């Protein structure tokens, strides 16, 4: 089942996508809902980010190819994480499918996409174990963890490198039924494939992270956990369009604009 | 004016504190409100955190005494921040005045308070300048940035060191009218003064941070920015009570419990 979020009669509404239609619901998928007897054309509806998280978690480095290739590029030694220690991103930076990534005028040319699987929490969760993790997940969406690499290297924190307004596209919708083992992430810039990798080929998997996180932290319905990216991302620039496709979910597409004033 | 937040007739409500009474309002202080003709006794009302932020910013190291004394203690060289690069904390960890700080059973004895001034944003803000910063601030409250120092040193991120459930007491209320230059932060454990410092004696001040942040990031009404702590915090343990007083605001008080199972 595909869930989306949009403005309907001037209010934010959740909806279920069936073929090319959105069926708006009353309520929400986390606390209970009822389908309305209305429908909207998907392609004529401006989607919002599919959920607004209470807390926005991001795993960071989580693929071995990425670690090794980045190490070759930078000449620094490869050091994959030794424990599933989660990080954070900021809600201000979230934008929906089709909305522009806006690069500040003083950013360097090293602004890059990162295509990521996003886990959406469905139920309040503390002290999960490897077995009951999965029933606390509502579904999956796609994230683009846009990063300014010069700021990422030089600032004391990741605040503007990762969390500048518009640097966190998320969507287009949440898919509740996926087969993790079959998923492929494909990243295209201007319709040309730049990177492609097995989505679930992670150093620490989804259940590793959720078990470890919930040993100390309560996850809430609508919280998101971005799972990291593989390969070596490329620069993006004014006029580009970045598509992140994850098979079984869909494609998150965002144009890129560079501010000139 | 003092603003608080609490449950009133099974709904979350904002209220204005006048002497020993709370006047509940309809609406909220950010988008407009009206006083009701009711009142509640402050001391009989269980307060909630005074605001639930969209994004939770935290400045980290921001006092020179703290940098120098910590450097002497650890033998590492003192390196004060050279730019106002902000960090983040997580909403899951927020608890209200009087609620217990719960230390996980596998934490070391190095769990410490940090008494901090908290800035509460009042209006949506982008590209602020030194002059118009102040009209975008709604008011000030108090935060206790509880930290497990062993995890802080050893984990790849601050996730559990700083964001374990209950590690971010905030409150008791928001004071809208303060004189920053006169403020003193006093931290007591079990009613004994442990640390005392000039609240506004910061390396980078409130306006430095908000001007820099909003060059890249939009701040929203209700966002909070925790401004860091001075001196060298002490360990806290099961049975302790930690009071953070900031003159002109009030006192945030929380008992400490260590989990044994």
Question: Could you characterize the architecture of this molecule?
Answer:
The structure is a homodimer. Chain A is mainly β and about 260 residues long. Chain A folds into 2 domains: about 1-50, FAH (SH3 type barrels), CATH 2.30.30; about 50-260, Fumarylacetoacetate hydrolase, domain 2, CATH 3.90.850.10. The first copy, chain A, has 4 helices and 19 strands. The first copy, chain A, is globular and about 60 Å long. Chain A starts with a strand and ends with a strand.
What is the CATH homologous superfamily assignment of the largest domain in chain A? Fumarylacetoacetase-like, C-terminal domain
- CATH topology heading of the largest domain in chain A: Fumarylacetoacetate hydrolase, domain 2
CATH class descriptor name of the largest domain in chain A: Alpha Beta
Number of helices of chain A: 4
What is the percentage of strand-forming residues of chain A?
A: 35-45%
Could you state the order of secondary-structure elements of chain A as H and E? Answer: EEEEEEHEEEEEEEHHEEEHEEE
The residue fraction in helices of chain A comes out at 10-25%
Low-confidence stretches of chain A: none
Q: What structural category do the secondary elements of chain A indicate?
A: mainly beta
How many whole angstroms does the radius of gyration of chain A measure?
Answer: 18 Å
| Shape-level CATH architecture of the largest domain in chain A | Alpha-Beta Complex
